[in-house]
Amino acid sequence: MQDNTVADKIPNPETRNSDKISIRNLNIWFGRVQALKNLNLLVQSNEILSVIGPASSGKTSFLRQINRLNELEVNCRVKGEILLDKKNIQELRCEILRKRVGMIFALPQVLPLSIYDNIAYGPRMHGITDKNYLDNIIEQSLTASFIWDEVKDRLNESALKLSGGQQQRLCISRTLAVKPEVILFDEPCSGLDPISTAKVEESMLKLKKDYTIVLVTNNVKQAARVGDRTAFFLMGELIEIDKTDKIFTAPGDKRTDDYIRGKFG
Amino acid sequence: MGGVKTTTKQKIAFSVLFLCTLIVVLPVLFVLWAILKGGAPAINWQFLSTMPREGMREGGIYPAIIGTIYLVSLSVLFSLPIGLFAAIYLNEYAKDNLLTRLIRLAIVNLSGVSSVVYGLFGLALFVNFLKFGVSILSGALTLAIMNLPVIIIASTEALASVPFSFREVSLSLGASRWQTVRYSVLPNAIPGILTGAILSLARAAGETAPILFTVAAFYLPKLPKSIFDQAMALPYHLYIISTQIPNIKTEVRYGTALVLIGIVFSMNIFAVVIRAKFRKKKKW
Asked: Alpha-carbon Rg of chain B, whole angstroms?
């Protein structure tokens, strides 16, 4: 593990065992605009990789390519490859890939269903109908995202009645319920107050024991708080990736330093 | 920028806007009032539930009411599923390219085609070519074809009004596209789809031209027994007793019009109620 930092600067074409996701020469275009330029990056198992960068730096496009949500955009074109456990994600069926790689969106996207049905949605889509089994999954998922105690007595109420922070933790539970391996967080706290943010961050830190996490955030301090490693994107390019401490104390690139200090972005 | 001047301008603007609204509403109210006033005396149980007598000058309009109900319900059996599935395809699956844009444009244009054209089309296709004859089946199919564009447009709008994020969430949980449509999109689009369908049915109930050549009978002594029989229908019956039969009491005409308008109106109100009920539930 000692050579990680070096290896990440010059990505190793042979993925190592601890590499969950490896991204090779990834380019993404939306129409004529290139959102991501020749990205090479490794995400290790059970780490939180924070991705920071100003608007239109390509960080969200990068994230949404890992579970192929970009394909929903009509004019999106992709070159390069992403390997999940050494297997090209384009060779997986979307349903399988997205079951393994879950996503939490910027705003809490609860479905207009009960709390129970929101979380049962994923498992049900994968054919689980057994009530006891579902009950179990729901309790486990809600416990894992630290919201079980707050909602256990009102599982049949509409999820829309929950507060924003609770909704976002519900969304995390919902993603956990399909038992993913990787969770992508797309600016998960952008609409939340500081206390809710702290709770979401707390769950992320506990979740990394069992999951690999990629966190795209506009909040530099959040990256510093929860990221094991941090990547800095600018104008569709990866400028720098390193241990979070290193990025925040002695970044290798002046642009990283400027961004972290709030000089632009 | 005198304050008085601004207020005056505002008052003038409001008056003009209000006047235009009034011009829209007044004729409708007047028509309703006239028909209600002229037709109410004719309405009684006998009028609604017996066959016409004395060359349709006496008796009821029962067969016309039944015929219209048959036609409308049969036509929705054809048009709602087909229209809904076409809308799902166009909104959820079809790529946005020249072909699908042309199709969309064609659908919008079709909804504006005059209903007599649909009537002639139904005569050519269903009555003559497919040899269904002048029958309830031909009439219902013709009405269905006429309604399809309206149902497709209403359904497409209802589907498009479901937030895109619902689809993203569903897909991101590993649901297939069909599961996403079935469990995330459709349940939230149903109210809009139903409203559109009912409104189009109301229109079908009131149309004369499409049924003129395909199903409508001048007078039938018996109720239709199968979908291959001819039937009487309210709008056509109204047309006949208004133009073809001399010396008929005016309240029979007005009464028939009142029943027709009553059916159309109650369907519209039903649609409004459904919409309002679901709007209360909808919270995104």
From this structure: 23
Cβ distance A215 to A141 under 8 Å? no
Residues 103-132 in A contacting B (C-alpha not used; CB under 8 Å): 103, 105, 107, 109, 111-112, 121-122, 124-126
- Answer for the pair B185, B159: CB distance below 8 angstroms, yes or no: yes
Q: Do B169 and A72 touch (CB under 8 A)?
A: no
Instruction: Please determine, for residue B56, whether its predicted confidence score (pLDDT) is greater than 90.
Output: no
In CATH terms, the fold of domain B63-281 is: MetI-like fold (1.10.3720)
Q: Where residue A15 falls among pLDDT bands split at 50, 70, 90? A: very low
Q: For residue A125, give the nearest of B166, B179, B282 by CB distance.
A: B179
Of A199, A207, A53, A237, the residue nearest A140 (C-alpha): A207
A162: phi then psi, degrees, rounded to nearest 5: -75, 160
Asked if B113 and B148 count as a contact pair (C-beta separation under 8 A), the reply is no
Going by C-alpha positions, the residue among B55, B78, B75, B20 that lies closest to residue B205 is B75
Q: Could you tell me which residues come within 8 angstroms of residue B43 by beta carbon, excluding any fewer than 6 positions away?
A: B255, B258, B259
Helices assigned H by DSSP within chain B: 3-39, 45-49, 62-88, 98-110, 115-122, 136-160, 164-172, 177-179, 186-206, 209-212, 234-243, 250-281
Q: Which domains does chain A have, with CATH numbers?
A: 4-260 (3.40.50.300)
Q: In whole angstroms, what is the distance from residue A44 CA to residue A243 CA?
A: 12
| Domain ranges within chain B, ordered by starting residue | 63-281
| pLDDT score for B283 | 56
What is the C-alpha separation between A99 and B212, in angstroms, rounded? 56
Taking CA–CA distances from B177, the nearest residue in chain A reads: A95
Query: How far apart are the C-alpha atoms of A197 and A215, rounded to whole Å?
Result: 13
Q: What is the pLDDT of residues B71-102, one digit of tens each?
A: 999 999 999 999 999 999 999 998 888 999 99
Q: A101 - beta bridge partners?
A: A182
**Per-residue pLDDT tens for B140-182?**
999 999 999 999 999 999 999 999 999 999 999 999 999 999 9
Orientation of helix A115-125 relative to helix A131-144, angle to 10°: 110
Please give the sequence-ordered ranges of beta strands (E in DSSP) within A31-98, or none if there are none: 33-44, 48-52, 76-84, 87-88
Q: Which DSSP category does B43 fall into?
A: -
Across the strands, what pairs with A78? A28
Distance CA A53, CA A236 (A): 9
**Is A109 close to B95, i.e. CB distance below 8 A?**
no
**Residue B171: count of CB within 10 angstroms of its CB:** 24
pLDDT tens track for A177-203: 999 999 999 999 988 889 989 989 998
ipTM of the complex: 0.87
